[in-house]
Amino acid sequence: MIPFDLTYHRPSSISEAVQLFEQIQKQGKTPLYYNGGTEIITLSRLNLVFADAVIDIKHIPECRVLDRKQNELTLGAALSLTTIEEANPFPLLAKAASEVADHTARNQITLGGNVCGQIFYRETVLPLLLADCDVVIAGKSGLRQHSIHEVFDQHIRLEPGEFLVQIKVDPIYTTMPHIHIKRRKQGNVGYPLVTVSMIKKERDLRVAFSGVCPFPFRSQAVEEQLNARHLPIETRIVRALQQLPEPILDDVEGSAEYRLFVLKNILTDMLIALEEG
Amino acid sequence: MIGKSVIRKEAWDKVTGRAKYTHDYLETGMLHAKLVISPYAHARIREIDTKKAFSIPGVRAVITGEGLPLTGEDLRDRPPIAFEKVRYHGEVVAVVVADTLVQAEQAARLVRVVYDPLPAVGSPREALEEGAPLIHERLGSYQKGKYTYPEPNTNIAHRTKIRKGNMKKGWMESDVVVEASFSFSPSDHIAMETRCATAEILPDGNIVIVASTQSPFMVKRLISAYFGEDVGKIVVRTPLVGGAYGGKAPVQLELLAYLASKAVGGRKVSVWNTREQDMITSPVHIGLEATVKLGCTTDGYIKAAEILFLFDGGAYSDKAIDVTRAAATDCTGPYHIENVWCDSLCVYTNHPYASPFRSFGHCEQAFAIERTIDLLAEKLNMDKLELRMKNAIRPGHTTPTQVLLNQSNVGNLPACIRRLYELIQWDEWQRIEIDARTVRAKGVSCSWKTSTIDTDASSGAIITFNPDGSVNLMSGVVEIGTGTKTILAQILAEKLKMDINDVHVKMEIDTQSTPEHWKTVASRGTFMGGRAVLEAADDVIRQLKDIAACILRAPIEDLEVGYGKVFLRDDPSIYIPIKDIAYGYKYPNGNAVGGQIIGRGNYILRHLTPLDKETGAGKPGPEWTVCAHAVEIEFDKRDCTYKIIKAVSVIDVGKVLNFKAALGQVMGAMSMGLSFASRETFLFDQYERVLNPQFRTYQPIRFGEHPEYIADFIETPQIDAPYGARGVGEHGLIGMPAALANALSIAAEVPLNQLPLFPELIWRTKKGEQYDSF
Asked: DSSP per residue over B309-372, as a string?
């Protein structure tokens, strides 16, 4: 149960949504953009999220786009993870999406919500980081489009009142060799112990991680070490893991030592598969 | 009728979503309670300030722990609301009652409690260390049952001792000895329906409780005992229960609902657990630290067993005392051992308090024993099933509490083992390397269980008729999802030789009109409820024959009841329909004789005795169900991950009463056992706070992750049971943790003596805590 009163708003256009946000904020209230809502609902029960008003952006046409053009794949932020799995416009993303939560939850969880969420795994962002995609953001001054690397650093960096509208992916990335491996503490559903996404662009490997640090990331330093092909795989992995941005997570999902062990094995399997493949 | 897979009576209501549970009965005008719980595992309560809570509109009362009596079934150590100090993370410190649940929750957040944290005790061994913080300083002053033995100035709530034979002789005769220690932390039951209750005190003084409970009759007795209310004024109603597994045997929220209603002038108040509170505030699945030492001859006959169980009973003893006693009762597992020493302790810690968990101390105990049996087999270099077969308990042997066994009360374990042997193709392979990384292994275990319930527990049944000759059956067994009410209907239909569709079962319990069934626990519903139903059926048959004898002008001895009629045994064409006599017989001239036929039946356990304080000698239950189990796994040697391929249980059920219901019970129990063994545990921080009271991080097994389940039955009748059937509600679970641990230990080639068996645990054990650092 949500233990506070809130108003629900369902704008039908981007500008209406942005205006609503501003209006509500001007009244001294706290608005939140609402997409799938799974996180807002479950965290507000626990008093970890608060809002006076939620602005549901799922009904804005631009947020629902799934458009495959020859030179651009556009994915609306309100597409559910199961929609992405079923349409499969970007197999690595579909795979990452299919491993999040459980099927019932994925019917509700949206791409935008997973990328922008508070819960720090945000696993669908891994393929997006690897594909150097663009993000379309709506705000007071209209739409702006940026490389994901400019707005996503550990988490999405949005100005107050802004929301994620679309993701734009260059289709060449959707056909590259790739692997996505998610390992949990136990079983097939749940948060990651470690999740790794990897693609091979020409000769170079790109890699992004979730569950390793308390945020998802792609690191140039890590990739450089992994791509040092003159060295044996094991050495490259050891060196790559020395480049992690923060000490490895140590929490209820698993200890730091165990995560390292798992990570090393996953990277070994991935390197062998993609370099030989 | 017996053995047929009759669809359970409440199935249509359940599959269409129309079945109603306690929290579905909402009423306008009903008030709602919200529990304020402790964020600390052990702390003194310095101050509770409720003023701010009253600033929320609709708040009617805020109840705190002052002046309340202590509660507890065997030992009264628990205030219903914490007073002066809190002893576990999640303990109730205040109850807020308001017009709506939202208001109650808003107000609950404004109750300010100031705590002085105390050092917390995180395990039984820690609790027993010299100088450990005392969790109950006044343990010696608590009111207790005659057979409860707390040890004041320690953290020991109760100790059960088993002393059988001569240990010195046992060790003398032993050529090979193994000893090992085992442990796991508390976890939870995770019933789909969280625990809840409503209470209302009517102007005439009647107290009406509606609760999701396995023990409606105990709720009534305990409210009377704790609060001095007239027992006859307390009415407890229990509709369908959405899973219980022992977690709904203790009485907790019912007391809070009663107190809440009392605080608001008797208005109806609902108390309902959120999932998080259900996991930690209400009682949990017990934890254990155990050490087992077994000695045997070179040819594999076990001669001595020394067993120490240190159960993590948590902050309050309540039902945990009984659980630890039950584990002691069957401490050796189903093996013939002449010399046994066992101490089973119910130890206080600052963890959530424990309650029964499906199998009542047995899956816990079996994990330790069956792992040790495997270690013994390895040391002897003997086949693991052969060692079990050699020592299997048989008629003529005695149990740890010195009960002499016969075929009726113990069944046939060797037959279970033989069937298991075939089902898992034991002789083909036990460990097989599939490729460089993958290995498959089979682990086995045996188990047994008796019921260890109160020696004077009883069950009653009432049968009434409808004008068409169909019957209504009322039994105090709660329908907790086991389908027992349907089984009772089958027993009655068989006895009255009538169509199962003509047996109407009253699903809800109302303690005012339903005859008592002690508690719906311990796989006792079919045995005790069944015996009561059979007696009630005999009563009905006698009454029907009495009146039919007059009308048919035939001696009672010549009459038979069945197929809706009372008929002459030698000439069934002479009969009277039951419908014509069930409400009295009316002669053509209007005169009537007889009257409503109401059948009554009762069963009380016989010849049970409490355990002797010094030796444990005594008869805990009427019969044992014996079982043999196996688990086959596929293990990845590099990653230490695994898949459970197959799980098998062979159970001597005496007689299968409803084949598919029995399969369902056994498979469900196996699933629960594997879930517990492979992934369910509370994780505690250094202050003993539960880190994962949520499904995000506490993940039971899911559909799709299950192995192939195989359940098979041996039928050695228990002579005094309805149609020979033994209890079977829990037994599929008992051997699962041990069988899984045995399989993984064989696959990983290291002894795995802790639960749950996360890949990380296996990895750590293999590494011997030494790991590469990069």
From this structure: EEEEEET--TTHHHHHHHHHHTTT-SB--SEEEEEEEEEE-SSPPEE--TTTTHHHHHHHHHHH
Measure A258 CA to nearest chain B CA, in Å. 6
Q: Is residue A2 part of a domain?
A: no
In a domain, A1, yes or no: no
Confidence of residue B772 (pLDDT cuts 50, 70, 90): very low
pLDDT tens across B273-300, in order? 999 999 999 999 999 999 999 999 999 9
CATH number of B458-604: 3.30.365.10
With bands split at pLDDT 50, 70 and 90, how would you rate the model's confidence at B156? very high
Question: Using CA atoms, how far apart are residues B511 and B506, in angstroms rounded to an integer?
Answer: 13
User: Across residues B315-343, what is the average pLDDT?
Assistant: 97
Residues B277, A43: Cα–Cα separation, whole Å = 15
In this structure, are residues B475 and B508 in contact, taking their beta carbons and an 8 Å threshold? no
Residues of A at the B interface, defined by Cβ within 8 angstroms: 1, 3-4, 45-47, 102, 183, 185-191, 238, 241-242, 252-255, 257-258, 260-262, 264-265
Q: What is the CATH number of the domain that holds A255?
A: 3.30.390.50
Chain B residues in contact with chain A using a Cβ-Cβ cutoff of 8 Å: 101-102, 105-106, 109, 274, 276, 638-639, 641, 678-679, 683, 691-692, 696-697, 699, 701-702, 704-705, 756, 758-760, 763-764, 771-774
DSSP codes of every residue in B641-704 = -EEEEEEEEEEE-SS-SBHHHHHHHHHHHHHHHHHHHHH----B-TT--BS--STTT-----TT
Please list every residue in chain B whose beta carbon sits closer than 8 Å to the beta carbon of residue A252.
683, 691-692, 697
Alpha-carbon distance values, A106 to A37, A78, A84, A94, B749 (Å) = 11, 12, 10, 12, 39
**How many structural domains comprise chain A?**
3
**B496-518: pLDDT as tens digits:** 999 999 999 999 999 999 999 99
CATH for the stretch B11-118+195-272: 3.90.1170.50
Q: Which of B276, B699, B771 sits opposite A261 (nearest CB)?
A: B771
Confidence of residue B466 (pLDDT cuts 50, 70, 90): very high
Do residues B370 and B446 lie in contact, with contact meaning Cβ atoms separated by under 8 Å? Answer: yes
Q: A211 and A269 share a domain?
A: yes
Strands annotated E in B253-323: 269-272, 284-285, 287-296, 302-314
Beta pairing partners, B210 = B198, B237
Residue-level pLDDT at A2: 87
Q: Quick check: is A267 in a domain?
A: yes
Distance of alpha carbon B487 from alpha carbon B2, whole angstroms: 9
Average pLDDT of span A149-154: 98
Closest C-alpha among A263, A183, A256, A182 to residue A226: A263
Q: B717, exposed or middle or buried, with CB in 10 Å at 0-12, 13-18, 19+?
A: middle
Cis peptide before B756 (omega within 30 of 0): yes
Subunit contact B102:A253, Cβ cutoff 8 A: no
The percent helix, strand, coil of chain A (3-state, each to 5) is 35, 25, 35
Say yes or no to pLDDT of B16 above 80: yes
Asked if residue A219 has pLDDT above 70, the reply is yes
CATH number corresponding to B284-453+609-767: 3.30.365.10
The residue among B699, B761, B767, B770 with the most chain A CBs within 10 A of its CB, best to mutate, is B699
Whether A51 maps to a domain, the answer reads yes
* Per-residue confidence (pLDDT) for residue A275, from 0 to 100: 87
Q: What is the mean pLDDT of chain A?
A: 96
Question: Do the Cβ atoms of B90 and B280 come closer than 8 Å?
Answer: yes
Cβ-Cβ contacts under 8 Å, B276 against chain A: 46
Distances (CA, A) of B732 to B92, B335, B485: 34, 18, 20
